[in-house]
Design a protein that fits this description.
By secondary structure, the chain is mainly beta. The protein has 4 domains: about 270 residues, Immunoglobulin-like (Sandwich); about 100 residues, Immunoglobulins (Immunoglobulin-like, Sandwich), CATH 2.60.40.10; about 110 residues, Lipoxygenase-1, CATH 2.60.60; about 90 residues, Immunoglobulin-like (Sandwich). The chain contains 5 helices and 41 strands. The strands form 11 sheets. The chain has a 5-stranded mixed β-sheet, with no helix packed on it. A hairpin with a 2-residue loop joins strand 14 and strand 15. The termini are far apart.
Length: about 600
């Protein structure tokens, strides 16, 4: 079953049926509706979003944008949200829409100028909308809705008044349920619409189509007369689900628009239907949820966040928040703002310093609202746990391997210290001629012990394993232990923090490091001497450049006791190199400089 609804319709000459009605009987101009066809992997769609938002801001109450996620760019890859709807696909596929690229949009489902399809370029939206809004309309439309926050039952009452004659074939009406502030991925959001990018890197999707509340996706007949002086009325009852294809339906972010068409095309006018909430049982009531799930860290400073929602009938303007880590001294943060009923916001708490343990517990609570007590303290507090990153041994000779997919030009990566200093980077790479992978290997020199992070960026926003080659990446430490790896399935970026120490905890290598392993002279110009204490085995001594290429190797068999191996460096270019000494699959590394 597509949806549950109840409909009633009547035709009358005049009168007021509902509190915020009747609809105006004064002739007015047309309102404009933009149905924008978009997708989370569409590079230029954020520019379309920005253009539509700007038109709406310049024409309040006259221009209504609707974002319809449809087509290949909206098809979610693994782990991505699905914003598509059956109604949106039906609107996009209707005869005459003619979508040839993304983003495109239909203004009032009609043709303009020399266009041969209703869907057209974003560069024409403003002028075509202006054309519509300058035209007289023969019908006005309005409505009101109530939403029970407990049952999620939505009751919509609507009216239309004909100030002129409609077409002989009659008119149709459509009611769309939209949602704002849907946070999720979006290719090139930071490039083309940065004001809609959240601090955590997600993108704020607005006026997203969630459902068409009519029985039919393209609208339903209004019935009765549509001649001058007649009024049409109707009611829809609809239960809002908890989520649409796994995307939560936040009640405070929902909105309704109604528009009237001639058949399936030629939108005549439109209006937003205000929603009022019923069923709220408290006045001052703030809830806390979505407390930061902090990743592994080697830092003793974190800045947690949480979602605060107004569950009461009074607008929230202030809240006192206390938070602590591992039972330490609580910190206090005073939030100010404005949240109407059921609205929510992400509260970013200031960074706090604590003593890092192997496992850490964050506790956050809302202790007061609007300067007084919260009427329901059952939803005011939360805790979450996070771990210290594992410590790795001597990682002077880390190795980073990345298998690019076909579109290597989209991929870059960095390894940085916690101070933001880049110690290694790579990409973008050349694209392959067909789907597949290509391995890139780079040696990474960490200058000192401390905290570091590795991050891979994909400019298109679909990771490096989304059907164009199963790309992946791996970082190993100086002993070959895997510090971090990824299967390449992510959106715009993936990041891992790690910590390294100068000590060696691997059996056998510890003996090498503590028993006279030394290289001299360093810096060198002609030769270097590699000195160490051998423990009855076969040792391989190598000079390696920073890309991992082995330049010279000497092998000692059945070596015992003090050893000094001389190796020439006079033919090497000036720069930094690595000297490794390996035994039984284990190795120890030091950096040298050649002058």
């Amino acid at each position: 079953m597509k949806k549950l609804y109840a409909l009633s319709a009547a035709v009358c000459l005049s009168g007021s049926l509902f509190a915020q009605l009747p609809v105006s009987t004064t002739p007015s101009n047309k309102r404009s509706v933009l149905e924008e066809f978009t997708g989370i992997y569409c590079q230029f769609c954020p520019d379309g979003h920005k253009i539509a938002n700007n038109i709406a801001a310049a024409n309040p109450g006259m221009f209504f944008p609707v974002n319809i996620h449809t087509g290949g760019y909206a098809n979610p890859q693994a782990g991505a949200p699905d914003y598509r709807t059956a109604d949106g696909d039906a609107i996009a596929a209707q005869p005459g829409m003619g979508i040839t690229g993304y983003p495109q949009g239909a203004i009032n489902r009609r043709l303009f100028g020399t266009n041969t399809a209703m869907a057209h370029s974003r560069s024409q939206w403003a002028s075509n909308a202006a054309t519509v809004m300058a035209e007289a309309s023969y019908v006005n439309v309005a409505g009101q809705a109530t939403l029970d926050v407990n049952t999620r039952a939505l009751v919509i009452d609507m009216e239309a008044y004909f100030t002129g004659n409609g077409p002989a074939a009659g008119n149709k009406y459509s009611v769309m349920l939209l949602q704002d502030n849907v946070n999720g991925p979006q290719t090139a959001g930071a490039t083309y619409n940065p004001t809609y990018v959240n601090p955590d890197g997600t993108y704020r999707h607005m006026h997203m189509l969630r459902d068409v509340l009519n029985p039919t996706s393209l609208g339903d007949a209004m019935g009765g007369a549509n001649t001058t002086g007649t009024t049409w009325s109707n009611q829809i009852t609809y239960t809002i689900p908890a989520a649409y294809t796994g995307v939560a339906a936040e009640l405070a972010d929902l909105s309704l628009i109604i528009f009237i068409t001639e058949g399936n095309t030629n939108t005549v006018t439109a209006a937003e239907i205000p929603i009022s909430f019923t069923g709220l049982t408290t006045s001052l009531n703030a809830s806390l949820s979505n407390l930061s799930q902090l990743p592994e860290t080697c830092s003793n400073t974190v800045a947690p966040s949480f979602k605060m929602r107004n569950e009461g009938s009074t607008t929230l303007t202030a809240a006192t928040v206390t938070y602590s880590i591992n039972g330490g001294a609580p910190q206090t943060y005073n939030w100010t703002g404005s949240l109407t009923s059921l609205q929510s916001t992400i509260v970013q708490l200031p960074a706090t310093t604590f003593t890092l343990a192997a496992t850490n517990t964050l506790a956050v609570a809302i202790s007061a609202v609007n300067g007084g007590s919260d009427e329901d303290i059952s939803n005011n507090a939360g805790t979450s746990s996070f771990n210290e990153t594992p410590n790795y041994g001597n990682t002077v000779n880390m190795t980073f391997k990345i298998n690019q997919d076909r579109y290597g030009s989209e991929t870059t990566w960095t390894i940085k210290s916690d101070a933001g200093t880049t110690i290694a980077s790579g990409g973008p790479y050349a694209n392959l001629t067909a789907n597949g992978i290509l391995l890139h290997t780079q040696q990474v020199v960490a200058p000192a012990s401390g905290c570091y992070n590795v991050e891979i960026l994909d400019s298109y926003g679909d990771g490096i394993n989304s059907g164009y080659g199963a790309g992946n990446a791996e970082l190993t430490d100086g002993q070959g232990h895997v510090v971090w790896s990824t299967n390449g399935i992510f959106g715009s970026s993936i990041r891992k923090e790690f910590k390294i120490t100068s000590s060696i905890n691997t059996t056998g290598l510890e003996a090498l490091s503590n028993e006279g392993f030394a290289i001299y002279p360093n810096p060198a110009t002609d030769n270097i001497n590699v000195a160490f204490e051998a423990q009855n085995g076969t040792y391989q001594i190598s000079i390696v450049d920073l890309t991992g290429r082995v330049l010279a190797t000497q092998t000692l068999s059945n070596a015992t006791g003090s050893q000094v191996v001389e190796m020439p460096v006079n033919e090497l270019a000036t720069g930094n190199y690595l000297v490794t000494i390996a035994k039984d699959g284990l190795k120890f590394t030091q950096k040298i400089s050649v002058l």
